[in-house]
Design goal:
Number of strands: 0
Helix content: 55-70%
Oligomer: single chain
Structural class: mainly alpha
Number of helices: 3
Length: about 70
């Protein structure tokens, strides 16, 4: 249980740092790929090296004809 809490804290810190570096994606809110702001930013700005291409919805979107970067 303590390990899970520690992992969440570390992830939240990492997301906050990404939010400062890439404010357009809204990572600091920790909402992730499902958030409209995040999806809109990916469509307008593209994806970064920090986006997990192994995440099935993102991978499928990148491979689809609807992705425009």
């Amino acid at each position: 249980s303590a390990g899970a809490v520690g992992a969440r804290v570390m992830r939240a810190r990492g997301m906050s740092k990404l939010g400062l570096k890439y404010p357009v994606y809204g990572w600091e809110s920790n909402a992730g790929y499902g958030a409209k702001r995040h999806r809109d930013a990916m469509a307008e700005q593209g994806v970064t090296a920090h986006h997990r291409r192994s995440f099935a919805p993102l991978r499928e979107w990148l491979e689809s004809e609807t992705f425009v970067a």
